[in-house]
Amino acid sequence: MRRAAFAFCATAMAVSLAACGSAKESKDDGDKASTGSKKGDALTVGLLLPENQTARYEKFDKPIIEKQISQLTNGKGKVEYLNAKQDASLQSQQIDTMITKKVDVLILDAVDYKAVANGVKKAKDAGIPVVAYDRLAEGPIAAYTSFDNTEVGKTQGKALLDAMGSDAKASSKIVMMNGAVTDPNAKQFKDGALSVLKGKVNIAKSYDTKEWKPENANANMEAAISAIGKDKIKGVYSANDGMAGGIITALKGAGLSKLPPVTGQDAELAGVQRIITGDQNMSVFKSYPQEAETVAKMAVSIAKTGKLDSAGLTTSTVDSGTDKGIASVIVPVVSLTQKNIKETVIDQGYYTLDEICTAKYKSACDKLGLK
Length: 371
Description:
Distance between the termini: 15 Å
Strand order of the largest sheet: 2-1-3-4-5-11-10
Largest sheet: 7 strands, mixed
């Protein structure tokens, strides 16, 4: 099963990247995008991550990027790391700090993709190329890697309709709990989901959730329940697992004996456990190790050679609100349900069976054959 899971991801990656562009395109994009200083192995890579509420950043992104950069620089490279804790103003200061430290390249996962544009320009003016990570920031970005965010929304939308079964009809009311408007990914998730859901169900309430916070999603859901009626909500589109937790708390608090299907994203431990019990219908599994390794290769390649093609990556191009033709690498996603928990989060090392199947969840795990 483990080999099958990896084979699937590898195949998906190959298909995704093959469709993105040719080796020639990669070289052209890299030449245009980068302002790299062409250094040796003794690199300093700045790493700015947006928040620490979501488990992925400290558990996967940071350590994997650090390890990969060490390997790519024969142990001579180092990472300067700061976390913005969901504060756009703090992240702007952190960019200034990285400029002062004269890092050779900066990996940036933006809190606010628009607010960060001036900082990106300052970094470029200081000779520091910026690689946008997970979220496409505005400003003169050298390169970008993320998942296919529109496909994430489509995957969530399809899973919701499937879970609704006979209730998936134009008269059935659902709630859409989208992410923060400051995150460009949130719009792409939303657009992808709407492309599947619109016309198939009645979107009775839709919210853009401030800062992606579960407590804000919980408050929004309570308002939706009051407006629509608890028994009339046939499904909930939640853009991520954290918000799904707040939504499910609100639904249970309303006294529902049977919860409507609720989507998610990020394969967070609590989300996986809710999927096991049936409280949450699905999540979107994204290979953070693959994404983190990719951005490390991109950053080191640009810093060392001024190009992306030397990293052996096939790129496409994307346009931001301020710049066009940004070299990008897109990583595929997988729908995570009760049926493929072992092949995804367990076999790929996200969580151990013991971490998932604690005493509270042992009975539900046993029913799914997770032993």
